[in-house]
Specification:
Largest sheet: 4 strands, mixed
Distance between the termini: 5 Å
Number of strands: 4
Structural class: alpha+beta
Low-confidence stretches: none
Strand order of the largest sheet: 2-1-3-4
Mean pLDDT: 92
Radius of gyration: 11 Å
Helix content: 40-55%
Shape: globular
Strand content: 25-35%
Number of helices: 3
């Protein structure tokens, strides 16, 4: 499973927590993936996101406005990777 993931946000503590938890979820799944932090407001707006942090997996917004636990991220990533 290789996934391309973007964390959308201004670079706040919640955004970094989401990035860390996403990397942990990938590790626990044994999945290959890249996690990119996107702080550019124009790019964030391009995804239609109104509340950050948000997570984009393979160019699809999977949630916004919260930081899920690692277990939930594992479920999300396991269901969306290709």
């Amino acid at each position: 499973m290789i996934v391309h993931i973007k964390v959308l946000g201004a670079g706040c503590a919640s955004c970094h927590t989401l990035e860390d938890r996403t990397n942990e979820a990938l590790t626990q799944l044994g999945a290959d993936g890249t996690v990119e932090m996107v702080t550019d407001y124009i790019q964030i707006a391009g995804y239609g996101v109104m509340s950050t942090p948000a997570l984009v997996v393979d160019d699809r917004v999977v949630f916004s406005g919260r930081v899920p636990k690692v277990a939930e991220l594992m479920t999300i990533l396991a269901g969306t990777g290709s």
